[in-house]
Write a structure and sequence with these properties.
There is one protein chain. The chain has about 325 residues and is of the alpha/beta class. It has a domain of about 210 residues: Ribonuclease Z/Hydroxyacylglutathione hydrolase-like (Metallo-beta-lactamase, Chain A), CATH 3.60.15. Helices cover about 30% and strands about 25% of the residues. The chain contains eight helices and 15 strands. Strand 3 and strand 4 form a beta hairpin. The chain starts with 12 loop residues before the first strand and ends with a strand. The structure holds zinc ion.
Length: about 325
């Protein structure tokens, strides 16, 4: 099970966003099916995220080797802790300097899903022949890489958004922004391991870069003209989650009870809509000041969904 997607439309493809800057886009961007990327400089390559499985990561790195003529992968960034962006880390060359935000490194170190996948997805993901590899370099707010003449700014928003340790990669000359999972393009955003108000706040922060090209964590690459509508859609969704959670807490309802009775409106058409249950878990836990039950939130999403959630790995 798991690593069956070998070829075909869901196998992923490398898109050259601008000269020497690549997005690895894996349709359709659902659970565990992420985007990654790379920046080629004069003296080596920066990889932005790996993939969930050995097969998917190898496919990405092989495609990258083909277009860069085998230039060394000297640096890699994990945009955040989640396994779809990190579980393939051990397939990077041993000599690659792997960078992550301080809290991200700690979260990956203790991530229980790497060894034990709960029965929340179908098929059950199989990561393949990978080991848990953590960043060797940690950063707090910012770090700038110089790839020969090419500058890449790594920036943490300064607060919890999609996760506590989100980092974007920004190319100020080329005006390309790799957002990690601060953006889901065409799919329901997931914030259950982060903060809904923080994710809302991060939208303005990303807009302020004024990017011309944006590589989201999931879904197709977007240009500056699409960005406003995508940011606005995220804003409407986060505000909807917050308002729903406030009402749910006032009525003393569980996230699942509220989600079952909820009209998702325009968001019903978004892929992975069951994430409403998990996002409500996060929002309600934060409103009442209690820790969120991660496995409970996953289990409730499965209940809402009427069975395990579909994944492409
Ligand atoms: Zn994520």
């Amino acid at each position: 099970m798991g690593e069956a997607v070998g070829t075909g439309p869901r196998a992923g493809a490398l898109h050259e966003v601008v000269d020497g800057v690549y997005a690895w886009v894996q349709p359709d961007g659902t659970w565990w099916v992420n985007n990654a990327g790379a920046v080629a400089g004069d003296d080596g390559v920066l990889v932005v995220d790996t993939c969930a499985t050995a097969t998917r990561t190898r496919r990405f790195l092989d495609a990258l080797t083909a277009v860069t003529g085998g230039a060394p992968v000297r640096w890699a960034l994990n945009t955040h802790q989640h396994g779809d962006h990190t579980y393939g880390n051990s397939l990077l060359p041993a000599s690659t300097a792997l960078i992550g935000q301080t809290t991200m490194r700690q979260a990956l170190k203790t991530d229980p899903l790497f060894e034990n996948v709960p029965p929340a997805w179908t098929p059950t993901p199989n990561w393949g022949a990978v080991t848990r590899r953590l960043p060797s370099i940690t950063m707090d707010r910012e770090l700038t890489l110089h790839l020969g003449g090419r500058r890449v700014d790594l920036r943490h928003p300064g607060y919890t958004a999609h996760t506590p340790g989100d980092v974007v990669a920004w190319l100020p000359e080329e005006r390309v922004l790799f957002t990690g999972d601060l953006l889901f393009h065409g799919l329901t955003p997931l914030v259950f391991m982060g903060s809904v108000p923080g994710a809302l706040r991060s939208l303005e922060w990303m807009r302020a870069f004024s990017p011309e090209h944006v590589v989201p964590g999931h879904g197709p690459v977007l240009g500056s003209t699409d960005l406003d509508s995508v940011l606005a859609a995220h804003e409407r969704y986060y505000r909807f989650v917050l308002a729903t959670a406030e009402e749910s807490v006032r009525a003393d309802r569980t996230p699942l009870e509220t989600a079952k009775a909820l009209d998702l409106g325009e968001f019903a058409a978004w892929a992975d809509s069951e994430r409403i249950v998990m996002n409500l878990h996060r929002a309600q836990a934060d409103l009442v000041g209690e820790p969120m039950d991660l496995l409970g939130a996953l289990g409730d999403a499965v209940a809402w969904n009427g069975g395990p959630m579909a994944t492409g790995v």
